[in-house]
Amino acid sequence: MNESEGPSLEVENLTVSIPLAEGTLRAVRGISFQVARGETLCIVGESGCGKSLTSLALMGLLPAKAVRGADRLVLHGRDLTALSERQMSDVRGESMAMIFQEPMTSLNPAYTIGNQLEEALRRHRTLGRGEARERAIYLLEKVGITAAASRLQQYPHQLSGGLRQRVMIAMALMCGPDLLICDEPTTALDVTIQAQILHLLRDLQREFNMAIILITHDLGVVARMADRVAVMYAGQIVETGTAAEVFAAPTHPYTQGLLQCIPIPGRTPRGEHLGSIPGVVPSLIGEIAGCSFANRCPHAMPACQAEPPMRDLAPGRMVRCVLDPAGAAARQAEMA
Length: 336
What we know:
Blueprint: E1 7-20, E2 23-36, E3 40-44, H1 51-59, E4 67-69, E5 72-75, E6 78-79, H2 85-91, E7 96-99, H3 103-106, H4 113-122, H5 129-142, H6 148-151, H7 161-172, E8 179-183, H8 191-208, E9 211-216, H9 219-225, E10 228-233, E11 236-242, H10 243-248, H11 253-260, E12 310-314, E13 317-320, H12 328-335
Parallel strand pairs: 3-9, 3-10, 7-8, 8-9
Antiparallel strand pairs: 1-2, 1-4, 1-5, 5-6, 10-11, 11-13, 12-13
Helix pairs in contact: 4-5, 4-7, 5-7, 7-8
């Protein structure tokens, strides 16, 4: 983090609860993090751990029945929890923007690419159609779309998946946001296009000096993109640190399990079975007691029946576990 600039986004004790017939679903449970301008924070975890709801909570785009709570939710000194829906709609697109997982469902099939790009800018700036069109062409070229001017007349269905995702990136950048949230932006794309999109995001971040929050379950993406990592499980952050720290010395048993599920080039023998995490994620409906990972953890003990606090291991390095961090490397070696 660039200390001279301070955090671009500060989140403390963010919660998301959804009332259901069978009880309250506590989808996001008291997570805290910061991200600085020019920094990439990757939030990683398996499906259903609350990553996407976290991003929607930051944007104020939660489902109608969902309830957001936070002790602190500040974007460049502006308290997002104090804003009305109208004020929040002014922030979205202007100061913070989001790239969604599936571009075909995020773009309106009834409007041309040009209409949608220009609307994103004119909603927040007093500009004529001609100026908005010039900005749209400029950004389409920036994201690597050739013949950008002619693309403005096309509809989403006329573009490939990779081009649609590039259009979504251009749309998110129309107003030059301070914070870009990317919710699994490469999941629906083939491997070659994934690499191009990730490289593009890196280049654009350097050019525009944006903070990026990247939501993903792909640890390969994390290794390529992250400055810092927050590992989520069952609605909570269970480990944080720089990407180098988390990959070199994972401390939480869940993080260790995730890393053992991926092959390591040059070290994992061909045909060898990869690691797996037994069991299933517990239900988050109703009251939740103790460590959420205890039913799947090979190191569970009686102390895990109480809620484990987040513990500081070093500046910017935290873990939610009662186990001795000094023994993490030994435990990981035993499981390998």
